[in-house]
Design a protein that fits this description.
- The complex is a heterodimer of chains A (488) and B (98).
- In chain A, 31% of the residues lie in helices and 26% in strands.
- Chain A has 14 helices and 24 strands.
- In chain B, the strands form 2 sheets. In chain B, strands 5-1-2-7-6-10 form a 6-stranded antiparallel sheet, with no helix packed on it. In chain B, strands 4-3-8-9 form a 4-stranded antiparallel sheet, with no helix packed on it.
- Classes of the chains: A alpha/beta (488), B mainly beta (98).
- Chains A and B meet through helix 1, helix 5, helix 6, strand 12 and strand 13 of A and strand 2 and strand 7 of B.
- Chain A: It holds the Pfam family AMP-binding.
Chain lengths: 488, 98
């Protein structure tokens, strides 16, 4: 099985069903399949089909068109600089690249990179990709190091769709709002599951909270996925106008740690909404753990602190996925003890163009730190590289951030390790004031000391207007570290 | 039979896509299926006992050979291999996460 077979089936069974809505433009499943073939004809003999641009029906069609041509689809981050784009394309060249109007001039001019154009009426009978064929090349977000090109094969992507989605089971009124950019793994997996279920995809070109809320209402969107930085801003809009989101039934969030306060706020403001927290990585073909709507409600209603804490977890492993937490010596740790998260399952790739990080036994080291509770709920502490080693003690920024964020004067915060002559590293924090709040560093230090050990109290707390995030909501700790390195 | 191939019933409207191929002959309603799009002569109604029908979007598996198909058009016949009916595969539906 390969990606194009998923679209083929839907387009044949119900060609007139709407597949993609972008602004005033709508494309049916039959038209999407035709576009995929016309783009495949444009790919020609190029071994990779790249996409450089914003969300568009063409981006969706090229994912499948690449499969028709028997080559991988490689969406490129259009927010990168021209130099970064050229470097990324160079690493996966030779290739044909489809660029949208805004990005066409940014495609580097060299022999290994060719502009891809749709061939009207075109079609190809390419080599049929098998399950081993690479289907998608996706650059990792690179928050801790330079982006790497992850390889996702048909066997990583297709079984998950077949096993968890019933073919064409979407109600005719179902619509999903896609607001993550095309180069994000959530956008790729969302296209695959939406297509197979026959769901209409409504594309938001770029995220803006007012536009998001307006589109959810006008397009009668029934489900959506957001990253953490989006949710609070959406809730601000909904709270201010009091009009709710009447058609929205499911909202999933992921792509970074979500403060429990934001989840509680969403549940209070939109009590009928089914919330899902999903945790996954590019290298694992997206979701590997889920906190279901029932898990949210059970946790919110519980008097048991251990159950209530699950609102801050990323839920349990999917039935097809195994998770274990290992210590520095590689030994599997019991529940309650934090270490590095390892994952295994059919959808786990862990393979890059340059090397594979997956062990022969199939386990992939996520480089994320966390722990499992007694019932298998996974709690994330952040990237393994973000752990602060102070005087030989490993400190998780997440625990300190959670405490700071719980203070009324704080809207957002970030905790990092700063090189220190005496301790190796010391803890420092950045806080963004809550509306009307005036965070006092001394008060906040006392607030942390009250709940946590004194070693976890930040040596310095910097009050800032905003924190640096990448466009998909990942906190850029390296920028904060660089900021302190400059001022030190 | 090849993965991705579409097979049609000659006894009813059923059409399936091969999700996992195996070296066996698939039947529907008791008669061998043919490659979809070929003009095979209809062979009457499904045989008695092999007329439980197929459901759109459901996967069916023949455990002994491993062959797995997905129903892309429903019909009145039962899918089988050498007269042995295929079993319905239950999907493990998850809350939508993306």
């Amino acid at each position: 099985m390969n990606l194009i077979m998923l679209l083929d089936m839907v387009a044949q069974a119900d060609p007139d069903r709407i597949a993609v809505t972008t602004g005033d433009r709508s494309v049916s499943y039959g038209e999407l399949l035709a576009m995929a073939h016309e783009l495949a004809a444009g790919i020609g003999s190029a071994p990779v089909a790249a996409y450089l641009g914003e969300n568009s029906p063409e981006a969706v069609a090229l994912l499948f068109g690449a499969s028709v041509a028997g080559v991988p689809y490689a969406p490129i981050n259009y927010r990168w600089t021209d130099a970064q784009i050229a470097e990324a394309l160079d690493r996966i060249a030779p290739l044909a690249v489809l660029a949208d109007a805004g990005c066409a001039s940014r495609v580097p001019d060299n022999d290994a990179v060719r502009h891809l154009t749709q061939v009207p009426g075109g079609s190809v009978d390419g080599a049929v990709p098998d399950e081993e064929s690479p289907a998608v090349l996706l650059f990792t977000s690179g928050t801790t190091s330079a982006p790497k090109a992850a390889v996702l094969r048909n066997r990583h992507l297709v079984p998950y769709v077949l096993e968890t989605i019933d073919f064409l089971n979407a109600d005719p009124d179902e619509a999903i709002l896609v607001s993550v950019p095309p180069y994000h793994i959530a956008a790729v997996s969302s296209v695959l599951t939406s297509v197979y279920s026959g769901r209409r995809m409504v594309q938001l070109i770029t995220f803006d909270p007012d536009e998001w809320v307006r589109t959810v209402r006008s397009e009668r969107v029934t489900q959506a996925m957001v990253v953490p930085t989006m949710l609070n801003r959406i809730l601000d809009v909904v709270e201010a106008d009091g009009l709710g989101l009447p058609h929205l039934r499911h909202l999933s969030y992921g792509g970074g740690r979500m403060p429990a306060q934001v989840v509680e706020r969403a549940m209070a403001l939109l009590p009928d909404l089914n919330l899902v927290n999903a945790y996954g990585l590019t290298e694992t073909s997206s979701t590997i753990t889920l906190l279901s709507p029932d898990d949210h409600r059970t946790a919110a209603a519980s008097e048991d602190p251990a159950v209530r804490a699950r609102l801050g977890s990323v839920g349990k492993a999917l039935p097809s996925v195994e998770i274990e937490v290992r210590g520095p010596d590689g030994v599997v740790l019991p529940s309650g003890v934090a270490g590095e998260i390892f994952v295994r399952g059919d959808q786990v790739s862990g393979e890059y163009l340059s090397h594979t990080a997956t062990e022969e036994s199939g386990w992939y080291p996520t480089r994320d730190r966390g722990h499992l509770d007694a019932d298998g709920f996974l709690f994330l502490d952040g990237r393994a590289d973000d752990v602060i080693v102070r005087g030989g003690e490993n400190l998780s920024p997440a625990e300190i951030e959670d405490r700071l964020a719980a203070h009324a004067s704080v809207a957002e915060c970030a905790v990092i390790g700063v090189p220190d002559a005496e301790w190796g590293e010391r803890v420092e924090a950045f806080v963004v004031p809550a509306e009307g709040g005036a965070p006092d560093p001394e008060v906040l230090r006392g607030w942390v000391r009250e709940a946590l050990r004194s070693t976890k109290v930040p040596a310095a707390i910097h009050v800032v207007d905003e924190l640096p995030y990448n466009e998909t909501g990942k906190l850029l700790r390296r920028e904060l570290r660089a900021r302190l390195a400059v001022t030190a | 039979m090849k993965t991705g191939m579409r097979l049609a019933s000659v006894t009813c409207a059923t059409e399936v896509m091969v999700v996992r191929a195996a070296d066996v002959a698939l039947e529907c309603g008791g008669a061998p299926m043919v490659e979809a799009g070929t003009d095979a002569a209809p062979a009457g109604a499904p045989a008695s006992g092999l007329d439980a029908g197929t459901e759109l979007g459901k996967r069916y598996v023949h455990a002994a050979s491993g062959v797995q198909v997905l129903c892309v058009k429903p019909g009145a016949g039962t899918l089988s291999v050498a007269g042995e009916p295929l079993e319905l595969v239950a999907s493990k539906q998850l809350p939508s996460s993306d």
